[in-house]
């Protein structure tokens, strides 16, 4: 962490490193291990706040060199416009090569969140990711998942092994001792690496604030056109948004706690216009982070099932 | 998810400042099945208000379906994550949980209690500052309590809480509590576990968790949460130790900058400090401590930094930059404790990868001194090591590596072993000390070189390694090759599996462990003979890829020829020259390759003989051409 918060030098103050300094150092250590041991790593970029932190850490880990791997955005074509703007800006500012993959099959079939339900996620995200990893031959992919997000994530390793067909076998993962990561693998196999596994949502926001990390403006409250649908507030981000009978866009002051495909991402009414206000709202709120995402709602173990099939 | 303090609503800036400066305590919970671990962690999360309303609603619904509390809120369901274990109603893997209080942030490793999952507990313990050892007040100290305590001590955790749980079920009896504590303390003393704080509590009712319970007026110690907030973290000890930084990555953006990136695992460093590169012993001086936020005046254990040196000296990934006056030792043989974590047993002599710090080297177990029965602490003789077994064993690596003892610095003395075929992490290891023989036995340099020995014979030394099923025709072909080479004036020697077993390897049987040792000895003999300039023909079934690779690595590049004599099992069995297959099928021969012991086919042999296409004479001619042509 920056010199202004360098550890104190008098030996009388016991915690010389704060928990955020320890988390930062751990994440950097993980990224350097991957760069040293894997042939062709890539960093998956979802454009959300966790990705923003991960990019920032990567820039630190390899300074003064640029990060020795590209960024990959597995694009569904249905992200918020503000996310695409942020994507271009961050890649340029931090000196990353940016790769964008759109599943050509999903593109050809016109897969969209209105007509295709869970097929939308399967084809654009799960299949798209597998295609991109195979296409470029990446053998390690960084992801911004955190263990505090969801129950099955709490048991995820930092180095998570996938078979040649990208499947995750929860019963057959390698033990991770001390800070020794075993990155050896056979040809065709790959690793998903989660360098911010041990960060919580509060840690991420606080780090963003302390380090002045740019995030997509959608996280901040503003007047936005939304419709009420199935109990969620869905933003009308472009003219592809299909309104159902009786639905009418209204302007509300809203923000997003999590970002994904705009027709599938619920907004919350909010007045939080600053990072401090966002953090305060997050701490006082009574619903958990992933609730804004439609994907989790089917059944208790749905995230675990999706992971076994190759979803990040 | 976050701790909700009153400060959040009243003064968010003050809250954030407080949170920013919190320290981090990592701890593990261990106990037997049904001691109430998951319930206790659920309780800590619940009482530090880490549970959101929607999660609470889901928990209420789950409690009715899968709960073990008759529909009442089952806090254990908060932490039992994977679908399979929900069905079984037990925790089967290590899960990491997060919560914070006004004073500290916590990461909990929830480690399972059943016998077959020792590896998970050791994994969770490897990163913990403190252990909570749970005991069911009704049951007292159990075999598994002893096992867990032994592992806590083994892994070097210096602080423990003895949580006597389910006190509500024994009417909060002081006598029961005192008796358990007395029992336990006797055992803890025996294994050398210190700094134990015992507390009576109930995860289910929450007594003595966040605040002192009125039900235990006789208990004078702190509530669990208070203790966790105040207990000293081991960090200072690490910072006060000698400087150590394993080099992870050499940072070379251009010809003018050469930085060594790594995480400091001991001590502190400042520009101007004299350092020593281990194991080479070269000296230099720290020029800069580089970070993206600007150069630092000092960095301490725990930080990830990039160091530059004042000299252009040889230093690469795996080396350790260390305090010049207090450097780590270097050795290639160690006494260690191994915790075996694989279904495949540990076999002495078999080559594994050993990863320590940022260095990976080839290693083998040279001797299992004894296994430890973790329930009784008895020392038992052993030839192999099975899943979840722990042993004191000697390890030999193929080059000197820098290390400190595990006790002095876990990051400098802890290692993992990796299977060379499956790439699985098969063991955790702790270095006790370097073996004196490694320090005192040096290579004798010999004036007549191996190439001089070969030149005088007018030939290039080689090792022809014939592998294949019993009855494939290895010995027949090897014998023909031997004769042909001899008639060409070549100096050869033939090592035959059966013959060697009559002499050098007379003491070995046919278990997997003995087969590995058999091949290791033969490979070493073949190497000595190749050094003497001979062409060595080795005819051994050698069923395991790992040992054939070991033999390959002993020889100089281009001198090892793996000759795969490829016959189908059906053909070999039909031929059955020695009548061995018939015996094996009749159950009279154990561990017979192909029948009840595996044969791992070579993946890229130098010479592949398909016995359905070539007879022995043609095969021998082909091999001689390959060798001399």
Q: Would you write up a description of this structure?
A:
The complex is a heterodimer of chains A (312) and B (629). Chain A is of the alpha/beta class. Chain A has helices spanning 19-37, 49-62, 81-94, 104-108, 118-136, 201-211, 275-284, 302-309; strands at 41-44, 71-74, 98-101, 140-142, 159-162, 190-193, 222-229, 232-235, 250-255, 266-269. In chain A, helix 6 (201-211) packs antiparallel against helix 7. Chain A is globular. The relative contact order of chain B is 0.07. Helices cover 30% and strands 28% of the residues of chain B. Chain B is an alpha/beta fold and 629 residues long. Chain B has four domains: 10-230, Rossmann fold; 244-323, Elongation Factor Tu (Ef-tu), domain 3 (Beta Barrel), CATH 2.40.30; 330-438, Translation factors (Elongation Factor Tu (Ef-tu), domain 3), CATH 2.40.30.10; 450-628, P-loop containing nucleotide triphosphate hydrolases (Rossmann fold, 3-Layer(aba) Sandwich), CATH 3.40.50. In chain B, the strands form five sheets. A seven-stranded antiparallel sheet of chain B has the order 7-15-11-12-14-9-8, with no helix packed on it. At the A-B interface, helix 1, helix 2, helix 6 and helix 7 of A face helix 2, helix 4, helix 5, strand 2 and helix 6 of B.
Largest interface: A-B, 80 and 91 residues
- Would you list the SSEs of chain A in sequence order as H and E? HEHEHEHHEEEHEEEEHH
CATH H-level name of the largest domain in chain B... which superfamily? Answer: P-loop containing nucleotide triphosphate hydrolases
- How many beta-strand elements of chain B? 27
- Briefly, what CATH class of the largest domain in chain B? Alpha Beta
- Most strands sheet of chain B: 7 strands, antiparallel
Instruction: Give, in spatial order, the strands making up the sheet with the most strands of chain B.
Output: 7-15-11-12-14-9-8
Radius of gyration of chain B: 30 Å
Number of helical regions of chain B: 20
Oligomer: heterodimer
Distance from N terminus to C terminus of chain B (CA atoms, Å) equals: 71 Å
Globular, elongated, flat, extended or rod-shaped: what is the shape of chain B?
globular
> How helix-rich are the residues of chain B, as a percent range?
25-40%
Stretches with pLDDT under 50, minimum 5 residues of chain A: 1-15, 294-301
- The low-confidence runs of chain B, each spanning 5 or more residues with pLDDT under 50, are none
Rg value of chain A: 20 Å
CATH architecture of the largest domain in chain B: 3-Layer(aba) Sandwich
Q: Which structural class do you get from the secondary structure elements of chain B?
A: alpha/beta
């Amino acid at each position: 962490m920056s010199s202004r918060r360098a550890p104190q030098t008098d030996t009388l103050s016991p915690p010389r490193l704060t928990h955020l300094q320890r988390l930062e150092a751990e994440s950097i250590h993980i990224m350097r291990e991957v760069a040293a041991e894997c042939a062709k790593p890539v960093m998956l970029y979802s454009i959300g706040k966790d990705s923003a932190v991960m990019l920032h850490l990567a820039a630190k880990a390899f300074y003064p060199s640029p990060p020795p791997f590209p960024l990959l955005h597995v694009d569904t074509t249905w992200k918020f416009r503000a996310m695409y703007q942020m994507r271009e800006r961050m890649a340029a500012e931090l000196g990353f090569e940016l790769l964008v993959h759109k599943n050509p099959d999903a593109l050809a079939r016109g897969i969209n969140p209105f007509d295709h339900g869970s097929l939308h996620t399967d084809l654009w995200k799960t299949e798209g990711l597998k295609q991109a990893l195979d296409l470029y031959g990446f053998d390690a992919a960084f992801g911004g998942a955190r263990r505090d997000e969801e129950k099955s994530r709490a048991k995820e390793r930092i180095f998570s092994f996938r078979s040649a067909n990208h499947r995750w076998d929860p019963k057959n993962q390698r033990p991770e001792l001390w800070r020794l990561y075993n990155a050896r693998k056979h040809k065709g196999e790959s690793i998903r690496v989660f360098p911010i596994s041990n960060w919580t949502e509060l840690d991420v926001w606080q780090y963003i604030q302390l380090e002045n990390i740019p995030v997509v403006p959608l996280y901040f409250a503003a007047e936005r056109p939304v419709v009420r649908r199935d109990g969620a507030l869905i933003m009308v981000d472009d003219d592809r948004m299909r309104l159902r009978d009786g639905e009418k866009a209204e302007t509300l002051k809203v923000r997003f706690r999590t970002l994904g495909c705009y027709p599938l991402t619920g907004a919350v009414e909010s007045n939080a216009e600053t990072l401090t206000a966002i953090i305060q709202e997050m701490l006082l709120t009574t619903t958990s982070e992933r609730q804004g995402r439609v994907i989790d709602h089917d059944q208790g173990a749905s995230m675990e099932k999706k992971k076994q099939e190759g979803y990040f | 998810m976050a701790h909700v303090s009153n400060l959040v609503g009243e003064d968010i800036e003050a809250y954030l400042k407080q949170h920013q400066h919190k320290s981090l305590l990592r701890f593990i919970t261990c106990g037997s099945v049904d001691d109430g671990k998951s319930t206790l962690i659920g309780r800590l999360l619940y009482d530090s208000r880490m549970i959101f309303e929607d999660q609470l609603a889901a928990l209420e619904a789950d409690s009715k379906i899968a709960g073990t509390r008759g529909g009442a809120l089952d806090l254990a369901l908060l932490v039992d994550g994977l679908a399979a274990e929900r069905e079984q109603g037990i925790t089967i893997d290590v899960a990491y949980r997060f919560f914070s209080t006004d004073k500290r942030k916590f990461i909990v490793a929830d480690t399972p209690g059943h016998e077959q999952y020792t590896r998970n507990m050791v994994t969770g313990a490897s990163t913990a500052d403190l252990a909570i050892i749970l005991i069911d007040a009704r049951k007292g100290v159990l075999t598994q309590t002893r096992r867990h305590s032994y592992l806590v001590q083994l892994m070097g955790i210096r602080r423990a809480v003895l949580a006597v749980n389910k006190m509500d079920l024994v009417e909060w009896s002081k006598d029961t509590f005192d008796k358990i504590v007395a029992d336990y303390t006797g055992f803890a003393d025996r294994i050398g576990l210190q700094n134990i704080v015992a507390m009576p509590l109930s995860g289910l009712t929450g007594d003595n968790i966040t605040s002192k319970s009125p039900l235990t007026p006789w208990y004078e110690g702190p509530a669990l949460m208070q203790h966790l907030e105040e207990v000293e973290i081991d960090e200072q000890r690490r910072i006060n130790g000698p400087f150590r930084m394993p080099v992870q990555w050499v940072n070379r953006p251009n010809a003018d900058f050469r930085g060594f990136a790594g995480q400091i695992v001991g001590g502190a460093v400042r520009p101007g400090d004299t350092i020593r590169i281990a194991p080479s012993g070269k000296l230099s001086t720290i020029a800069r401590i580089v970070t993206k936020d600007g150069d630092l005046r000092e960095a301490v254990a725990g930080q990830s930094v990039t160091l530059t040196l004042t000299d252009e000296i040889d230093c690469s990934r795996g080396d350790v930059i260390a305090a010049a006056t207090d450097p780590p030792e270097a050795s290639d043989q160690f006494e260690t404790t191994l915790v075996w974590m694989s279904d495949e047993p540990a076999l002495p002599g078999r080559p594994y990868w050993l990863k320590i710090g940022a260095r990976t080297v080839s290693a083998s177990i040279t001797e299992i001194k004894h296994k430890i029965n973790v329930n009784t602490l008895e020392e038992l003789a052993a030839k192999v090591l099975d899943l979840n077994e722990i042993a004191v064993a000697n390890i030999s690596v193929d080059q000197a590596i820098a290390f400190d003892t595990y006790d002095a610095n876990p990051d400098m003395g802890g290692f993992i072993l990796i299977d060379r075929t499956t790439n699985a992490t098969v063991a955790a290891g702790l270095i006790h000390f370097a073996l004196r023989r490694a320090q005192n036995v040096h290579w004798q340099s010999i004036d007549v070189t191996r190439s001089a020995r070969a030149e005088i014979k007018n030939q290039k030394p080689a090792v022809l390694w014939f592998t294949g099923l019993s009855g494939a025709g290895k010995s027949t072909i090897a014998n023909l090759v031997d004769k042909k080479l001899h008639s060409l004036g070549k100096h050869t020697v033939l090592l035959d599996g059966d013959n060697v077993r009559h002499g050098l390897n007379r003491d070995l049987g046919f278990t997997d462990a003995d087969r590995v040792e058999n091949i290791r000895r033969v490979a070493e003999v073949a190497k000595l003979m190749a050094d003497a300039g001979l062409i060595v023909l080795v005819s051994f079934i050698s069923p395991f890829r790992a040992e054939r690779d070991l033999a390959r690595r002993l020889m100089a590049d281009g001198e090892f020829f793996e000759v795969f004599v490829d016959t189908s099992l059906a053909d070999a069995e039909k031929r059955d020259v020695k009548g061995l297959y018939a015996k094996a099928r009749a159950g009279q021969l154990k561990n017979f390759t192909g029948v009840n012991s595996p044969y791992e086919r070579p993946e890229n042999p130098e010479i592949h003989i398909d016995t359905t296409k070539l007879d022995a004479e043609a095969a021998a001619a082909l091999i001689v051409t390959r060798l001399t042509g």
